[in-house]
Design brief:
This protein is α/β, with parallel strands linked by helices. It has nine helices and 18 strands. Helix 2 packs across helix 4, helix 3 crosses helix 4 and helix 7 crosses helix 9. The radius of gyration is 22 Å and the shape is globular.
């Protein structure tokens, strides 16, 4: 028996878990999927059985977790999260097993799972084992690089402007590992995965924001300079901590991190008179030291002292670091109107949003369809509120920046079928 999960004394706090299941082919929700949950150390003894609703979601449940202090104390050597195994099955789909879903105390872990439609009478189960969090396990230290890349090398392609990509290609290994698989990953999903793998979601919101900005700026530098493609590789970034960031297939994310990425995803860090996003490197500050880079445990301390995200970043990278916003976002059918849509709003942007909501409602029947009249009335507000509840956003019934881009993201997913498969 796994001693870590064996007794109530080990896990006196509670975390939460919510599971979302979609089809790998259509991006539609999978209703009626069965999920069995067990302690990772005791996989044959289920402690919870869940089913997905018409939105492909389970209820949010509470699970045992270690004390909150473990994830807030840089000196603690105790594992700050509990690990659970999920076994997922649904009629017509290949089963999936995920070992190592990480539950931190006080917050909600979100486990997104894509199921592949069954193409053989006896499909094999896909098994994913989630390795240790980078702040708890041992991983190679980042190999230092210049934070601004030269743009005069022969053959180097540098984009004319900073664009947030819709997808990036992640090489799940070191660059020269030809056996490692390439994954096509939505940019926002990649950032949420990396942040959930490299910092603890129990940390202060502004510490999370500072780290998310550093992760996004680093990633957009790789995109902007086409760093790996200019070296002859066919991917955007790797999952090796020695070269890039830790990205883990099928790992869970957290609600605190997800909301912040949705809020900031078009931003990056820049210095005066430098066009490219800055390659903001960092280390944990406990196992590895890195002068002139941000340390993650140090950023926790500054966040607890009330430092803002830019103050945290300037503490490490200098006072000439600024937050910038990308000029363009790929894959978005219509741009953010620049103001919140609410009851009383009207016009073409409202109509576009209503049209997209109705397409989404075709896949997610819990969301009521609305009249596409360009007028934001109570029925539209209610449809937006239900959409927000399904996709983990604050249920305001108003379309703010986060909600606008989430509607666009889900609309593109359910209206563009099988394009990337």
């Amino acid at each position: 028996m796994n001693a870590f999960n064996a007794t109530a004394q080990d896990t006196p706090d509670k975390g939460r878990l919510q599971i979302n299941i979609t089809s790998d082919i259509t991006a539609y929700p999978v209703s009626g999927a069965s999920i069995s949950i067990s302690y990772t150390g005791v996989p044959d003894s289920p402690i919870e059985q869940l089913k997905t609703d018409s939105s492909g979601q389970t209820e949010t449940i509470e699970l045992d977790a270690p004390p909150l202090d473990y994830s807030l104390d840089s000196r603690s050597e105790e594992q700050p999260y509990a690990e659970y195994t999920l076994n997922v099955s649904a009629p017509g789909y290949e089963p999936v097993s995920i070992a190592g879903t990480e539950i931190l105390p006080t917050i909600t872990a979100i486990q997104n799972i894509s199921l592949r439609p069954m193409d053989t009478p006896e499909p094999s189960e896909s098994v994913f084992v989630i390795p240790a969090h980078t702040l708890y396990g041992t991983y190679p230290a980042k190999i230092p690089e210049e934070e601004i890349k030269p743009t005069t090398e022969t053959g180097e392609i540098v984009l004319s402007r900073v664009v947030v990509p819709e997808y990036i290609v992640v090489h799940d290994g070191s660059p020269r590992d030809t056996t490692a698989r390439n994954y096509y990953v939505k940019y926002k999903d990649y950032i949420k995965n990396v942040a959930s793998s490299e910092i603890y979601a129990t940390w202060p919101a502004d510490t999370i924001r500072a780290n998310v900005l550093a992760i996004m700026s680093f990633t957009l530098n790789r995109v902007y300079t086409e760093w790996y493609r200019n070296k002859g590789y066919d991917f955007t970034i790797t999952s090796s901590t020695a070269f890039d960031h830790k990205w883990i297939p099928e790992r869970n994310i957290y609600d605190t991190i997800s909301l912040i990425v949705d809020e900031l995803f078009a931003d990056y860090l820049s210095r005066p008179n430098v066009r490219q996003p800055i390659l903001t490197q960092y280390c944990d500050g406990r196992q590895v030291q890195c002068p002139n880079w941000m340390t993650q445990w140090g950023s926790l301390s500054l966040g607890e002292q009330g430092y803002s995200p830019i103050e945290i970043l300037r503490y490490y990278y200098g006072d000439d670091m600024y937050i910038n916003t990308a000029e363009a976002i790929s894959g978005i059918p219509s741009s953010w109107p620049g103001y919140t849509l609410e009851i009383g709003s009207s016009g073409q942007k409202v109509r576009q949003m209503q049209e997209q909501l109705n397409v989404i409602a075709g896949a997610y029947p819990a969301i009521p369809k609305v009249t596409m009249d360009g007028v934001y009335g109570p029925a539209t507000a209610e449809a937006v509120r239900v959409f927000q509840s399904v996709f983990g956003l604050p249920q305001t019934g108003e379309v703010d920046y986060r909600t606008w881009f989430k509607i666009s993201e889900i609309y593109v997913g359910v209206s563009r079928i099988a394009e990337l498969v």
